[in-house]
Amino acid sequence: ELTLAVQLSSTLVLRHLARRQFVKPVGQLIPVPYLKILNSRGFAAQVLGTNLMGAVISQADKFIIGALTDMETLGVYSFCATVASLTLKLAGPIFTATYPRLALFSAASERKNDLVATYHIACQMTAVLVFPAAFILIIFPQEVVFFWTGSRELSSAVYPVLSMLAAGNALNAMAQIPYALQLAHNWAKLAFWQNVVAVILLFPSAWILTLGFGSTGTAAAWIAVNAGYCFVGVALMHRHLLRGELLNWLINDLFKPFALTA
What we know:
Layout: H1 2-21, H2 34-39, H3 41-68, H4 71-84, H5 86-106, H6 112-139, H7 141-149, H8 152-157, H9 161-174, H10 176-184, H11 189-213, H12 215-241, H13 246-261
Helix pairs in contact: 3-11, 4-9, 5-6, 5-9, 5-10, 6-9, 6-10, 6-13, 9-12, 10-12, 11-12
């Protein structure tokens, strides 16, 4: 009930602010660009497909754990996944704040330098926030869980799954701003096919690894999928949208923050 009240209040406040900013002149009709909406249906379909498959991918490991192990293992794994999701939550606000500016700059060819600068700054901000949190979870998973829950039994059960999930989510977080750049250019095809490949590869690989290594194997499959997003997907994105910037991204946006945090 409290969450519903907060969401409703937020919606009403945003509605009020939007109406103040976009006041329709009295007696004037605002044309609806139906043709532009129809021309965007392919892009919208790709984004929808990407989001739907992303939801499947995010839950596939829990489904496999539940099918192949016991409920206790599923419970511990789900708890680890919840704690490890902190890294993605840190990247979310930067994505939200950066995407409109990337869209603005991508629409004006003369602002290419602003686009590139904004992109790299956002990637570096993501790394500065995500890597320290991820490293704490990777190196001190048992201490963090015990400090949070006070349960020695639970804290002893989270290693090494929590560390591995945190590493996978950190890789995923570093692919968020490159994905925002793709959306800013109305280009969702790469992300769509990435998720198609991820769905095809994740289920059999995670299934086999879980059979052999339990929940640790499932977490290893999660790292592999997100490594594909972070390195293969981002490399392909740079080749299509930002030629010549991949090395800059690897050195300044990824390696330097990683090395400083380490």
